[in-house]
Amino acid sequence: MQSNAANVLAILQQRGWKLAIAESLSGGLLAAEFVAVAGASKVLLGSITAYQNSIKEQLLEVSAGDLESHGAVSADVAEAMAIGVRSVFAKAAGMSQDQVVGISTTGVAGPDADGDKPVGLVYLGLDIPGQKVTSLELRLNGTRDEIRAAAVKSAVSELLEQIGN
């Protein structure tokens, strides 16, 4: 039985699409989930781990206004990260954005809350060709590592659900 990550990559490859990943909360774990699949290089363009807000702004083109008004842990920023990574990698690869899927993760893994954002609050952003940009809010429990792992699992599952239709 194939993993969800393998299924995502197979569907994207069938459609001639590529994958671009922007990570904050997951710190590279989402990209690693896809890289673990043999042949991932046929679909995965790359990943940007943007932990600091300045990196979100400079590399992912997230507006300072969104970061200031909503905070890095928000639906708006998750969506902006997905849009930005899709744009950045499409441009770098010399491709149309219609051939690239963007996905992002942002959240609070703990052990401490981030202001009014509780531990376990996670947002996933998805920018898929032909679909409206969306985000998903998750409320996860567990240790820092468990929250990050659950966020990755949820991100892969949500992407599979969105592109599988």
Describe the protein.
This protein is α/β, with parallel strands linked by helices and 165 residues long. It has one domain: CinA-like (Maf protein). Helix content is 44%, strand content 20%. It has a five-stranded mixed sheet, with helices on both faces. Helix 1 runs parallel beside helix 6.
What labels describe this entry?
alpha/beta, 5 strands, 165 residues, Maf protein, globular, 5-stranded mixed beta sheet, 44% helix, 6 helices
What sequence of helices (H) and strands (E) makes up the elements? HEHEHHHEEEH
Shape: globular
Reading off the top of the CATH hierarchy, the class is best stated as Alpha Beta
Q: How many domain modules?
A: 1
Estimated helix fraction = 40-55%
Rg over CA atoms? 15 Å
DSSP strand content:
15-25%
The main β sheet shows up as:
5 strands, mixed
The residue ranges in which pLDDT falls below 50 over 5 or more consecutive positions are none
By CATH, the superfamily comes out as: CinA-like
Q: Gap between N and C termini, in Å? A: 20 Å
The largest sheet has its strands arranged as 2-1-3-4-5
Q: Quick one: how many beta strands? A: 5
Averaged pLDDT, please?
Answer: 97
Helix count equals 6
